[in-house]
Amino acid sequence: MVKKIIPRHVGFIPDGNRRWAVSQGLRKEAGYAHGVNPGLLLLERCREYGISEVSIYGFTQDNTRRVTVQTNAFREACVKFAFEVARRGAALLVVGDETSVQFPDALKEFRQRRGSGMKVNFLVNYGWEWDLAGLGCGCLRSSDVSRMDLIVRWGGGRRLSGFLPVQSVYADFYIRDEYWPDFDIKHLDKALDWYNKQDRTLGG
């Protein structure tokens, strides 16, 4: 039997919260809260599989142009998610521009990695230009995040949306059409099965 290869670092783009809310007859901003528990379930399964590092999108600097009721909702969901991740014992690092008013004050303590166990990099008020601008001072602002092996995106989009452009340079990219709040653990299992079939030469 061929041994399954488990990627060391997996990135996740949990898209489709607003579209899910509309499909359920809810206001768009209601979708964000429904994305918290799927994220916790996903991280628990990653831990069980022995994945050592995970990066997951919270919200981008571009997302903050949305209406206030939505920005408040996704900031609140991100704070709830981050504190529960920390409570469960992960090594949490929040990556994003903490100098902006859009960055939740409650998460500033996690701009330095805290905790032990599986590394979780949570992108909050993140922007690729903000990240790369750190090179002017000698290093990426996401320099504590390693190169990704696999990226999984929900919501059907076929784009990276600025997701850690340096670390994603050789990542395989797997798409799910389901909206993020409809996450099922089988989505991760199928992504890992797909990953095992890819030719990972890294350009060699």
UniProtKB/TrEMBL annotation:
One of its GO terms (biological process) is polyprenol biosynthetic process. InterPro entries: UPP_synth-like (IPR001441), UPP_synth-like_sf (IPR036424). Keywords: Transferase. GO terms for molecular function: ditrans,polycis-polyprenyl diphosphate synthase [(2E,6E)-farnesyl diphosphate specific] activity. Belongs to the UPP synthase family. Z-FPP synthase subfamily. This is Di-trans-poly-cis-decaprenylcistransferase. It comes from Acidithiobacillus ferrivorans SS3. The lineage of its organism: Bacteria, Pseudomonadati, Pseudomonadota, Acidithiobacillia, Acidithiobacillales.
